Amino acid sequence: MKQIVKKFNNLIKKTIFKVKNKTNDKLLLFKTEKNANNKLLISKFNKFIITLISLLFFYLFYLSIPVLYGKNWVQKNIENQLLKDFKIHFSLSSDISYRILPSPHYLVKDSKILKEDNKTVSLAEIKTLKIFISQSNFFDKSKLLLRHIKLDKVNFILLANDLRMLKNSANKKLSNKKIEIKNSNIFFKNNLNETVSIIKISDASLLRDDEKLLNLINLKGNIFNIPFRLDYSRNFDYLNNEEINFVVKKLKLDIFNTRTFPENNDSTGENVISFLNSKIITNYKIKDGIMIFNSVNSKIKNSKVNYKGKMEVNPFDLNLNIHLDSYNLFKFFNPDSILNELIKTKLLFNKNISVSTSITKSTNSNNKLFQNAKINFNIVDGKLNINKTRLINEKIGLLELNDSNISFENDKLILNTNVIISIKNSDKLFSLLQTNKKFRKPIKNIFINLDYDLLFNNINFNNIKINNKKINNESLRIIENFNDSEINWNKSKRVLNNFFENYEG
Fold first, then answer.
1. 427 — phi, psi (to 5°)?
2. Is 357 inside a domain boundary?
């Protein structure tokens, strides 16, 4: 029995030692193989890093090749390519440097754009011009190609003739290489070299989309501190049309215009103006620089509006007749009206603008004072007036404004005018005002000269005459109660009746 146990123990020991030796051998072999693999991996990684660094070094060396090009050659070659690609005559300065980041480009300082018809006169002065180039083949400088250009801090100086030139350029196909403009100004000048207006450009781009056959121009900026956005597209396929979208959020104004160019010199189009809750739709035709237009299903608030007119652009001359159904004409002079907002921009105070506009209103028996009205708005030699404006009461008489002038000074929009009231039946007037019979005196005409602040609804009476006689100071003091901003029809009647009580006749 002892022998059996002894043999069994020996067998166990041999088995355990055998397994242990095999395990140790495998562990040793595994460690050896692992070290070899680690060395192999480290060797491959080093080769990868070395290859990557070499490629990067070679790529940077390749990108640096344009530094070796002669500066004079670069200046001349880029000017030629700019003319070829963009049809723009650039005059580059000798201050040219080459930059790799963010993409290979030449940086040119203090350059100019020359006029097409006179190469000695500059159209624009460019503080910074970046010309981005293709990386396709730097080893052969003769194959240097432009990708796109960026202009920064540009001052454009434009006269009337330059505007026509730019319009003609927009009607032609642009380059398929993008032009970007940043932080720039457009100075519009008259023939006396006086600055008429300034447009500040924060961001603009010009490009031809070959797939859609479109010229695309996008511009963001501001004029008279009013931000705006302008998007322009011109189609060169069989449709041959253009679209313009002009948006001024501050004025809640959106203008969309589409225009088609047939084979002859005429063109037709549609213009949609949206502001506040109003929508003005206009069909028009242009021939020989003159536009004839009329309204289509247009509304101001909830009131229908019909109009027709004629406009010439150079010089700007507008003749417009408007007919309203039920719109309150006095809203045109509300402090927040679109007309007041437009006047405040000072765009209309321009000697090159001529406007003759009349607005008539349909008969409205609901109005206690005036059943018919006609408001004229005119611009002559940079001055605004509402001469020959008439408010008519069929039973009592009419009110007419003459020798008027609208000016914008010290943040006040002032209308100075003569008010002539012709009364054909003074009894009807007193009956409307419910004037005490003992204070009713015959009145044929009333003359008033006043200053009216259109923004704050303040009236200053300068002179008042009744039946060609000047009123006394006490009567003038009473009538000045119309300055009260809370004036209404009932209060107006009380003020007028108080006035007639003190009127000497």
1. -65, -40
2. no
